[in-house]
C-alpha cells in the first residue's frame, strides 16, 4: 500500500506550496496525496433547517474545490488523490482522519511568511500534540517556495 501525504486544503495563499510539495514527493516515492477540506460544523439546533442547507452548500463547494485541485495533484503526482471532507475544528478533523487511516504517513503544511506568522494551521498543529493516537511527522513547507525549489527539495 502506498503511503499517503495528507494536505489540508484551506484558503491561505501558501496552501499551493503544500500541494505542490506533497504531489512532487508522492511522485518521487510512489505515494499518494490525500486532500482534506475542513468545513465548519454547526451547533445551533434552533436553526437546524438553515444549518443543513448551509452544510449542503459547503459540502458541494468543497467537492468542487477538491475536484479542481485533484486535477493538479494528479498531474503533479502521477496518481489520483484521495478526497476527504470533514466538519469541525481543523486539529480535530486532522486527528480523526489520521486515526482512521494508518496509511497517512506525513502531514504536509505550508507556512506563511512575514508579519502574518506561520499561519493558523501550523500554529494549531504545533500546539495540539498527536494525531489520532499516532506520532505523525509534519513537513512544513515555506509558502514562498517556487516550483523549481520544490522540485529540488522533493
Automatic annotation (TrEMBL):
Gene3D superfamilies, per the entry: 3.40.50.12370
CDD domains referenced in this protein's UniProt entry, alphabetically: USP-like
Segments spanning the bilayer are none
At the top level of its lineage, which domain of life is listed? Bacteria
The UniProt record lists the UspA domain at 1-109
Q: What is this protein called?
A: Universal stress protein
Lineage here is:
Bacteria, Pseudomonadati, Pseudomonadota, Alphaproteobacteria, Caulobacterales
